[in-house]
Amino acid sequence: MERGGRFPRYRRHAKQPAASSSTSSGKVSIPTDMSFLQANANPSSTISPNKANVESNSSTAAQAAHPQPVTVREQDQYMPIANVIRIMRRILPAHAKISDDAKETIQECVSEYISFITGEANERCQREQRKTITAEDVLWAMGKLGFDDYVEPLTVFLNRYRETENERSYIRDPILKRSSVGVVEYESLGMPPYIPSYPRGPPPQGIFDGAMMGGYYKDTSDSAAGIGGSSDSNSLANFDPFAQFK
Amino acid sequence: MRQAGRYSGMLCGGLSGRSGPHSLPLARIKKIMKKSGDDVKMISGEAPIVFSKACELFIEELTQRSWMVTMQGKRRTLHKDDVASAVIATDIFDFLVNLVDNNSSNSMDNPEDISS
Q1: Which residues of chain A have a CB within 8 Å of the CB of B34?
Q2: A132-133/B42-43 β-pairing
Q3: Strands (E), A99-152
Q4: How far apart are CA B42 and CA A233, in angstroms?
Q5: Which one of A83, A90, A159, B10 has the largest count of C-beta atoms within 10 Å of its C-beta?
Q6: Residues A141, A120: contact at Cβ < 8 Å?
Q7: Chain A residue with the nearest C-alpha to that of B23
Q8: Are A191 and A217 in contact (CB under 8 A)?
Q9: Which residues of A touch B76 (CB under 8 A)?
């Protein structure tokens, strides 16, 4: 891809017009080239399963000293590898090891899966002249593309999520926030909006409990983990419970 | 877009295991969905949430199948080749065939003449 190869790293540090450099053009060409990039700033065209390609693109884009986000960073194309590994480890026995290339491959496969399903769902939306891809479209696409085993558990998941959403709006009723029974309810139903009045212990941990929406989703409904978990977590120093209110 | 579980990324970073509601970041999923085609316009709030769970199922299935290949080889380390074998052996993973074979540039150059 020509967009990547034109600006070798040394140029940035050379601090010269680089008119005499080995590559074809110096500074003058940069705006032109960047306008080419702008004209073609099509994120979809930078999709490439080859990570090295993307990395060189983004580094050279930076080298050109134009902060144009014309290429997608590698990490934006994929699910975070830590999350992927965590899910893999649920399946694998304790003694199993995973090679790095396997981790990366699965990481790439996930992104491909999302694109694949979304493409089909999007086509359906277009055929039906709708602009928004809905959860139903996604589920339909999965069924069509052979992932029908997923459809039922996903439907259950989606329905539980929707119920929780409805209950969340219900729980904004100020009467509920003071209820001690609500301690358990909150952790299964969602983040209580009235955080300062949350009756449990130091606010960050209390909020953490409240924020454990995982209750509605957890397969092993260890609801105690939500409350007990707060004592385990040391990592909430930067947790900003009010972020959603900003 | 609904922000349910927006803390999941932070929660998952801080906790071990699956205590977050969605173990995959919704914003990233949405980004990938948008990139899947030029004409992807709008995405409902629920779609990334469905995907977060679907991707878990997908990863679990792919891992499971790959691990079976590893075990057949009496090994304990899951390699990329095992993933590739699992992909090839599974019909619904056909869309991944090129992906797992991406390093061999001449993958198209070998016309395996299967005359049937």
Answers
A1: 43
A2: parallel
A3: 132-133
A4: 37
A5: A83
A6: yes
A7: A83
A8: no
A9: 95-97
